[in-house]
Write a structure and sequence with these properties.
The complex is a heterodimer. Chain A is mainly α. In chain A, 69% of the residues lie in helices and 1% in strands. Chain A has helices at residues 31-51, 53-73, 75-82, 87-116, 119-124, 130-154, 165-190, 196-213, 225-233, 237-248, 255-261, 274-298, and strands spanning 266-267, 270-271. In chain A, helix 4 (87-116) runs antiparallel to helix 6, helix 7 packs antiparallel against helix 10 (237-248) and helix 10 (237-248) runs antiparallel to helix 12 (274-298). Chain A is elongated and about 75 Å long. Chain A starts with 30 loop residues before the first helix and ends with a helix. By secondary structure, chain B is an alpha/beta fold. Chain B has helices at residues 48-55, 77-83, 99-109, 114-127, 143-155, 173-190, 201-204, 224-231, 243-254, 272-282, 300-308, 312-317, 319-335; strands at 8-19, 22-33, 37-41, 63-68, 71-72, 84-87, 161-165, 193-198, 209-214, 217-222, 234-240, 259-261, 264-269, 290-296. Chain B has a 6-stranded mixed β-sheet, sandwiched between helices. A 4-stranded antiparallel β-sheet of chain B has the order 2-1-4-5. In chain B, strands 12-13-11-14 form a 4-stranded antiparallel β-sheet, covered by helices on one side. In chain B, strand 7 (161-165), helix 6 and strand 8 form a beta-alpha-beta unit. Chain B is elongated, with a radius of gyration of 23 Å. The chains are: A mainly alpha, B alpha/beta. At the A-B interface, helix 1 and helix 5 of A face helix 2, helix 3, helix 4 and helix 6 of B.
């Protein structure tokens, strides 16, 4: 019956009247209390993700479909263009981004659920800053998306990508960045949306074009001009590119294949460095987080 | 428990809330003493929820001021929030978490001292009779259990004022009664002020004092017994074989307007117990004989009727009467 009650209480277990009232005190708002709020909001996302096994599986279906079915199916067609590199290996970094993206967007959607089912109100009336709630949600979504990414990372060997420590760490860091930025992006949209259906509508409209244009499924060089322009404007392209670069630097393939598949993103002929790309993703994420906080604080 | 002996828990001065063109709350003023159970009574759309939302710092008043637990609801929003507990009309639990997970989350958000979270949780769960179900997922709880859990959660941080917005709405009578038992028990043990809204007349009886709200204004404010005494009339119900003739006879002989209600003749009269002997002695033998008679004291429904000229149910069912305000509230809620 009893749990870990640290305080010796004079209570007769069942008798209400004899129970001494445990009085608690709510302290004034401080940095510590805000951090505690961020932590619990973050933890709630993890608890919910962990208890939803079905979601973990269903959100892997789409990336794996693309990787094994589309990648495997188009292999024969693509053979001449990939210079002997397996198509699955080529699209693998893009698939990683996909798994992270979908999970992150879905996590961001939880704020719409929270609103619909009333729980958001419980957080809104608490004596904590709105920013703490948004930050907690963003970190929670990023963590969950990253966990999903790790599953995809684990199957690297199946598509001919080596398990090199540098590669794993680098890809992990990049997907963490991506997860953070996409969650912030999703939250920025989700905070304005009152119904789940509309959120998924908006998501389809934004996410799919962004994903296809990013070059996750094809090399970013030698595209038609219009597509090149769109590709360079697509933030996701700057997440896919360094990831692919990292993967390809660990493959032993011909220089010809390298040039064809991993020529990467250029600005007027200048190859954009990977660190700059990563920095851009981070800054973009921070800006979007800021917008999300601002939006959420303005909500009554 | 009287309001005057102790400090003031809630002080409201001329609070106004306007949504676009509609004045949902039109300047209400009242005081609630520490330790009181204070009820806000009125039909849907009367402005009860809007008032409670302003006091909970969820809405900013258009004009006027109020303090809750000694803190201004506009300027000291956080201090108000630290000192109040809230149970909303609509559920705000996380259905995917267990009862304890919900309570822990609340304690963390409110910064409750870590060492006290467990004992406090145990206490509030026992109080609402959910200790045995503490590890159950909330999604599998019944409506009454969820409401009890919400009350427990509202108490987790030992608030000085607990706001309950329609705490028993949509629950069966038995659950409603048990929730009231908890509220009463709570008031005795926790030295807490309870501010609640309801549109169940019978529940308002439980309050120390009630304010009757209609059209955004407080039309009456007093203890339930005093309010009822203020109506000044009792309700007399008689049964005859010919009710229409009886109504006419009462009108002619006693100058009282009676009406037909559920097969009986009903009328209001001052000092009902003194009127009934007179009724019998003066009753004309030519009329249909009176088969039965009963006298009842005024209910809060009669109180509401005497102040607003309509019963609470009619006030809610008349769509035109409240439509504007309801729409304004929905609009205001959707605007965010």
């Amino acid at each position: 019956m009893s749990t870990t009650v640290s305080k010796p209480t004079p209570l007769g277990e069942q008798d209400h009247d004899e129970t001494e009232v445990v009085r608690v005190h709510v302290p004034k708002r401080s940095l510590a209390s805000e951090l505690r709020a961020i932590k619990i909001v973050w933890r709630r996302e993890l608890i919910r993700f962990a208890s939803d096994r079905l979601r973990i599986v269903t959100q892997l279906v789409q990336p794996f479909l693309f990787l094994f079915v589309l990648g495997g199916g188009l292999q024969t067609l693509a053979r001449s263009g990939t210079h002997g590199v397996n198509l699955k290996t080529f699209i693998y970094p893009g698939i990683l981004c996909m798994a992270v993206m979908f999970t992150a967007m879905f996590s961001a959607a939880s704020i719409v659920w929270d609103r619909e089912f009333g729980f958001l109100r419980e957080m809104m009336v608490a004596p904590v800053r709105r920013s703490s709630i948004v930050i907690g949600k963003t970190l929670g979504g990023a963590t969950v998306a990253c966990a999903q990414g790790i599953i995809v990372l684990a199957i690297a060997g199946l598509v001919g990508v080596p398990y090199a420590p540098g590669l794993i760490l680098g890809v992990f860091g990049l997907q963490l960045l991506l997860a953070f930025t996409i969650t912030a992006f999703g939250l920025m949209i989700a905070i304005r949306i009152k119904q789940m259906q509309s959120f998924f509508g908006v998501m389809q409209m934004i996410i799919m074009p962004m994903y296809f244009i990013s070059g996750a499924m094809f090399p970013a060089s030698g595209l038609p001009t219009w597509l090149t322009i769109l590709n360079r404007l697509d933030p996701l392209a700057y997440a896919v590119d360094p990831m692919r670069r990292l993967v390809f630097s660990h493959l032993s393939i011909s220089p010809l294949a390298h040039r064809a598949l991993d020529s990467g993103i250029t600005w007027w002929g200048w190859r954009v460095p990977g660190l700059l790309e990563a920095g851009m993703i981070l800054i973009l994420g921070l800006i979007m987080l800021g917008v999300a906080i601002w939006e959420f604080s303005a909500t009554e | 428990m009287t309001a005057t002996t102790t400090a003031t828990a809630i002080q409201v001065d001329d609070l106004v809330k306007t949504f676009d063109q509609v004045r949902a709350v039109r300047g209400v003023s009242f005081e609630v003493g520490a330790g009181e159970v204070f009820g806000f009574l009125g039909p849907n759309g009367a402005g009860k929820s809007t008032t409670i939302n302003m006091l909970c710092t969820l809405m900013k008043p258009t004009s006027g001021s109020a303090t809750v637990a000694g803190h201004d609801i506009v300027r000291e929003r956080d201090d108000v929030r630290r000192n109040i507990g809230l149970v909303f009309q609509d559920p705000t639990l996380d259905n995917y978490l267990t009862a304890t997970q919900n309570l822990k989350l609340h304690a963390e958000l409110y910064g409750v001292e870590s060492g006290l979270v467990e004992p406090r949780m145990r206490q509030v769960l026992k109080m609402v009779g959910l200790w045995d179900r503490r590890d159950g997922v909330v999604g599998q709880f019944s409506g009454g259990m969820r409401r009890r859990l919400e009350i427990a959660r509202g108490l987790m941080h030992s608030p000085r004022v607990l706001f309950l917005d329609e705490p028993t709405i949509g629950l069966d009578p038995q659950t409603r009664r048990s929730i009231w038992d908890y509220i009463r028990q709570l008031q005795q043990r926790e030295e807490i002020t309870i501010f609640m809204t309801t549109h169940y007349m019978d529940e308002a009886e439980w309050c120390d004092r009630i304010a009757i709200m209609d059209h955004g204004e407080i039309v009456a404010l007093d203890g339930p017994d005093k309010l009822k005494a203020g109506v000044g009339t009792d309700r007399v119900t008689i049964q005859t074989d010919d009710n229409q003739a009886a109504i006419e006879a009462i009108r002619n002989q006693f100058d009282i307007e009676a009406k037909l209600s559920e097969g009986s003749v009903v009328f209001n009269v001052a000092k009902g117990e003194e009127f009934v002997p007179r009724l019998f002695s003066e009753w004309d033998g030519a009329h249909a004989p009176i088969l039965s008679v009963s006298i009842s004291r005024p209910t809060l429904d009669d109180v509401f009727m005497s102040f607003t000229g309509t019963s609470i149910r009619d006030a809610e069912e008349d769509p035109g009467r409240n439509r504007n305000r309801m729409m304004a509230m929905m609009h205001g809620g959707g605007r965010r």
